[in-house]
Amino acid sequence: MSENAQISIDKIVENLISIHPLLSKNFTRAIRSKTNLNPGSLFILGLLKKYTVLSMTEIGCKLSMPKPHVTAQIDKLIAEEMVERLNDPNDRRIINIRLTDNGLKDFESIKLEITEELRHRIEKLSTEKIERLYAASAVAREILTEIMIEPSTPGNDCKR
């Protein structure tokens, strides 16, 4: 690898690292103003919306979250009547989690409010900047999806 390529990679990493706190801080602030749930709980709700039913292990794997942390998050969501536990009919050791109607409704409401807040900020940009941001975000999403998804490895409990 050339020195220029290495410098470019270093700058990409620096840019990506600096983007995360910007997004995280603003999303967390928006989330906190709309609900008492934390971002981890919302990530779980988003996963369950996408996949309908997931086991505790699958949730932990998809979010790179330790199982005890997943359990604590799920317990809070159950107390809020946003998710429910389901026993796996084929294996009593597996606990599956599913969104309740209330959980789906609340998740959609929170997501809409956060989307509207972000949309309001983006609308302040010039048309040229909106087009550039759209193109850059589409490319970043495509490439990050490619490089951030870890392939299954022997001994890895995560199913991809």
Corresponding CATH architecture of the domain at 25-124: Orthogonal Bundle
For CATH, the homologous superfamily of the domain at 25-124 is named as Winged helix-like DNA-binding domain superfamily/Winged helix DNA-binding domain
Question: What name does the CATH topology of the domain at 25-124 carry?
Answer: Arc Repressor Mutant, subunit A
Query: Alpha-carbon distance between the termini?
Result: 31 Å
| DSSP summary: helix tally | 6
> What sequence of helices (H) and strands (E) makes up the elements?
HHEHHEEHH
Helix content: 55-70%
Strand order of the largest sheet: 1-3-2
Number of strands: 3
Bulk shape: globular
Q: Work out the radius of gyration.
A: 19 Å
How does this model look, in words?
- With 160 residues, this protein is mainly α.
- The chain has a domain of 100 residues: Orthogonal Bundle (Arc Repressor Mutant, subunit A).
- It is built from 6 helices and 3 strands.
- The protein has a 3-stranded antiparallel beta sheet.
- The model has no long low-confidence stretch (mean pLDDT 86).
How is the secondary structure organized here?
Elements: H1 3-34, H2 39-51, E1 53-55, H3 56-63, H4 67-79, E2 83-87, E3 95-99, H5 101-123, H6 127-148
Antiparallel strand pairs: 1-3, 2-3
Helix pairs in contact: 1-5, 3-4
